[in-house]
Amino acid sequence: MTCFLMENPRAVLIHIPKTGGTAMRWLWPDPPVQRCYGYIPDTWMDAEKIAVVRNPEARFLSGVRMFKYGTTGVNGAVESPRMPDLDVDRALDIVENPSVGFDRTQRTERENLKHHLLPQTHPFHCLHLADHVLRQETLAEDVAALGLDGLRPLTRQREAVAASDLLQLTNQQRTRLQRVFAQDYDLLGYDQTGAVSNPVTLPPAPERAIWPLWPAYFSDQTVLAKMAQDALPADGVDLKPFVDETIAGIPKSTWPGRKGNLTEHFRNLQPEFVGSSRIAHLAACCIVVIRRTQGAGPGLLLFNRIMSEHGDVVLADMNSRWLCSVADTLADHGQHPAQQALGLCGSLLAAAVKLAETERLIYAVPRPWPPNARLGEDGVMYDGVISFWGENGDMIDNLLDRAAKAEDLDPIGGQLILEMTSRILRFDTVFRRMAELSGRPDVPQISDEIRARLTRIANNRL
Q: Residue 455, class by beta-carbon neighbours within 10 Å (0-12 exposed, 13-18 middle, 19+ buried)?
């Protein structure tokens, strides 16, 4: 939902859910040309921009009833309930929970509910750009007053099922709802009884919003590799909003698939970055485009800028899978030989660990811990190579020393090597297990979540 471009007559429908927006779309004989989420493109700004608002309490209850009991669609078909166990308090909890997304990039039931209940004056709805604001309570009269030729008659709107009349607010819940939607009451001119008391005041334009900065991602566009330049933000985009935004939603494990539509591919990657900064997700999407175009198309300039300006945040927020991808990208497309060499070092280091751990998983031989015997200083293995000596071996110390010196060669590549090395030693890998053989206590580590949060706080303070 959100903003629809309509033709014949040309207009932009700012569809705020549960205000009659579906009925409004049915006024046009033709379906929408395109939809965008959270912004209106510059190419649409010549059209009349129309929004519908509604008494906040009635709108909230309409949304809760639809998810709890189901609804009757505009075509008369009954839609099944999506969240039959939903109640008012849980719905308000979801609206107030910043970890629940609403911008249509993920579509779990909780996120769909929050999208439908999000305050009408929230910047995502673009109400600040409306030329005409209609009221749901007087929709037929307000539509007629628009004077647009070519519209069909206004049909009946969605209707809740009869059981939904059972859902009522307690005084405590009503007080909470009025607090949560205070700006809607104030700017849209409704008093606490739901009656219209004042004209609509448009909300102020947001100082920074991420949605217009990445047009393809926050829209229904299909972008294939041959048009990859349209998939990413502009090379000179303001990156600060991407750094400041923490991705909401439900985290999921690595997605190994591939989609021809780049925007769909990007959305499938997003759950890996839930709880992380949007800039890390954007860097990953740049890598996807770089690979699809072999570095000859878009993506590389933006990727280099992201890493130069915010590489510390990106590396802290990426998992090891994506750190390896950064290393591969530097190895293939680094800006100078030192950066390419450090990228190659990171790729080889990650590949060696991955090979060792893959072989261990394939054979799955039970290994007692600690081992019954350890190799000494004369443990020759192959072609003159001597085994790692747990008690006195210095291979890992040397690796850390060399990794620390890598920053002198190139800040981006050096930070990458340090981050990859720290992850290899933090998790259950051959490096971690062999380090433990020395009998030295582990270096205390904070969690990835706390570390990433501290990094963002420090960056925002600079």
A: middle
Q: Is 173 helix (H, G, I), strand (E, B) or coil?
A: helix
Cα 383 to chain center, whole Å? 50
Distance from C-alpha of 239 to C-alpha of 456, rounded to nearest angstrom: 14
> Tell me, what DSSP letter sits at residue 245?
P
Mapped onto helix, strand or coil, the DSSP state of residue 5 is: strand
Residues 6+ apart with CB under 8 A from 22: 15, 73, 74, 157, 158
**Could you tell me where the beta strands, DSSP code E, fall in 270-426?**
380-382, 385-386
The angle subtended at Cα 95 by Cα 92 and Cα 101, nearest 5°, is 150
Sequence-distant (6+) residues with CB within 8 A of 196 are 135, 137, 189, 190
Tell me the Cα Rg of the chain: 28
DSSP 8-state code for residue 429: S
Pairing of strands 11-15, 48-53: parallel
Give the residue among 342, 284, 294 at the shortest CA–CA distance from 314: 284
pLDDT, position 158:
59
* Close Cβ partners of 457 (under 8 Å, ≥ 6 residues apart): none
**C-alpha distance across the termini of the chain, in Å:** 38
229: region left, alpha or beta (phi > 0 left; psi from -120 to 50 alpha): alpha
Whole-model pTM?
Answer: 0.86
Tokens 């600040």 found at: 128
In whole angstroms, give the CA distance from residue 423 to residue 397.
15
Q: Which residue in the block uniquely carries the two structure tokens 């997700």?
A: 281
Look at phi and psi of residue 152 and say left if phi exceeds 0, alpha if psi is from -120 to 50, else beta.
beta
Interior CA angle at 258 toward 254 and 260, to 5°? Answer: 145
Q: How many CB atoms lie within 10 A of CB 198?
A: 11
Q: Are 289 and 306 in contact (CB under 8 A)?
A: no
* Successive 10-residue mean pLDDT values, the chain, 462 residues: 91 96 92 95 96 97 93 66 94 96 92 97 97 96 93 72 70 97 98 95 92 95 91 95 94 90 96 96 97 88 97 95 96 96 94 91 76 61 71 68 83 93 88 72 57 61 52
Contact 313, 270 (CB under 8 A): no
φ, ψ at 346 (rounded to 5°): -65, -40
- In this prediction, residue 354 carries a pLDDT of 92
